[in-house]
Every structure is written in structure tokens, then in C-alpha cells.
Amino acid sequence: MANVEQSEGVILNKREAVHRNPKVIAVTSGKGGVGKTNVVGNLAVSLAKMGKSVVILDADLGLGNLDVLFGVVPKYTLEHVILGLKTLPEIMIPGPCGIQILPTSSGSEDFTHLTPEQKLVLLSELDRLENAVDVFLIDTAAGISSNVLYFNTVAQDIVVVVSPEPTSISDAYAIMKILSLRHGEKRFKLLVNMARSTRQSLDVYRKLSLVADRFLDIGIDYVGFIPQDDYLRMAVFEQKAVVELFPGARSSVVFTDLADKVMQWPSNDLPKGNCQFLWKRLLNGSNSMEKC
After folding, report:
1. What is the pLDDT of residues 207-246, one digit of tens each?
2. Does the predicted TM-score (pTM) go above 0.90?
3. Of 158, 184, 228, 247, which is most buried with the most CB atoms under 10 A?
4. What's phi and psi for 109, nearest 5 deg?
């Protein structure tokens, strides 16, 4: 039976994190419109406020909007890197509290289905990153495209963002099913967004757990919920993270708690797939990121 993740645990401090593999986390969703990118942005800023080095990869190739969320305008994007025109350090842009963003373009179909050669180019460039990273967040696109599945399988933890809407719950199950049956993923973390209460969020978790226990050989860890919050919507319109603009808001407190939980998740010593060189480089680099 899938179990609710416990909050107890030891928080790794900066020195300990440097001597272990960085946390590489894919944040994904089966359905668009569930606030996934907003979750990524606020989680990143919350982690940075804790003194962690954070890099976000906007992996929604073709419809990226992390730059819009933070009100920044990239001159170059991942597409320039894949084409061999720029390197990752040349396209990386700073965000709030010293987070670093690897932006992608919006409105382009050319890279919505990366070829094996293009994936190799991207991973080779990621290998050249010189900054040590505590947390590497991958903001995937929504849905079950080949790009979405790929970026989830290279991460060490997969966080599925779901809203209480029935269609969102159904699509969240679909992406976990495909990742499990086709790619061997057996563990997922569930974050319920835009929930009215703890009861409603746990109801979403129970629905998914019951179906998963019956039809899939996977485990789902409940990591909490982000409440509906007017301050969160106000921050979106201001193109700011709510944890930065309204640190006392209910949603900000929850994001801070979530960041604390993330740092308690066990680090995997062995990377998955063909990305060993990426994690090794992230682990061994030197850290020069500015903190809050």
C-alpha cells in the first residue's frame, strides 16, 4: 500500500550536500493548468532562501514559461544550445535569490520531440556546468510526450503535481502508468495543488493510491498540498514568486515546509539512465551562486 511520507528526518546541511549527489527532481503533471511551473518556481526560491544552490531546467521545449513567471527575458534559450550555437552558461539567466534558470523558447515546434542526437547534445552541455548544485529541478511539460517521459526518467525523484479536478487525477494516473509500464519507474511523489483543505488533498491521494495499488506495481508518497490562496494569484500577476513577494502568505509557508521536506529526501547514490556524467559534474563543480 502506498504510504504517506513522514516529515521526520535529518536535513542535510550545505557541507553534507556537497559530498553527496545533488537532488535531481523532475516536476511533472499529466494535465496542463495545474500550476506545475508555479510550484517549481516557488519551490526553487524557497530552497534558495535556505541557502541551497538551485538550477531550474525549463524542459517544456516549445512552450516554456519559467521566464514569464519570473519576469525575465532570455536572449538565448535551450534551442540555441541544441543547435550548437550557444553553451549552457551562455544562456543561463539569474532568478530571485540566486537561482539559475536554463530557459527554453515558447511557440516553437522544432524541439517538442528531441531526437537521440539532440538529447546527447543537451546532456553533454549539462556535463559542462561548472557550478555545484544542491538541487536541480526539471520543469517538464504536461502530458505524456516523448520529451516529458525522457526528462522524468533521467531524474532521481519524480514529483507529480495534480489538482482535485477529476481530469487532472485521471491524467496523473496515466503518466504514472506509462512511466511505470514502459520505463520501469516504481516510485512517485504526489503534490496536490489548488486544494481547498487537507481533507480534499488526501482524498485525491487516496483515489490515486487505490487505483495504483490495484493495477500498478508502484508506490506513491504523499508530500502535501498547496492551498488555494489569493496571494498566490496576486504574485503570478506581479511575475514574482509568492514566497518572495508575500512571505507570510499561507501558500508561502507551505512552500517553505515543502522545501524543508525536499532536503530530507534520501539522495540516490547512483543516477539513472545515461546521465552519470551529468550528476558527477554537478557534484564536483565549484559553487559561485549568490544567495538571499
Report:
1. 999 999 999 999 999 999 999 999 999 999 999 999 999 9
2. no
3. 158
4. -95, -10
Determine the Cα–Cα distance for residues 255 and 40; give it in Å rounded to an integer.
10
Give whole-number Cα distances, 130 to 121, 126, 135, 281, 289, in Å. 17, 9, 14, 7, 11
Q: With contact defined as beta carbons under 8 Å apart, do 58 and 138 qualify?
A: no
Among 202, 191, 205, 135, which Cα is nearest to 159's? Answer: 191
Measured distance CA(35)–CA(168) in Å, rounded: 11
Backbone angles phi, psi at 198, to 5 degrees: -60, -40
What DSSP string runs through 71-134? T---SS-HHHHHTTSS-HHHH-EE-GGG-EEE---BS--TTSS--HHHHHHHHHHHTT--S--S
| Amino acid at position 109, single letter | E
Q: Which is nearest to 152 in space by CA: 174, 133, 121? A: 174
Cell numbers for 36 = 506545475
**Which single residue is written with the C-alpha cell 496523473?**
172
pLDDT digits 0-9 by tens, 71-104:
888 888 888 888 889 888 888 999 999 999 999 8
- Domain spans of the chain? 21-282
Cell numbers for 30, please give them: 499529466
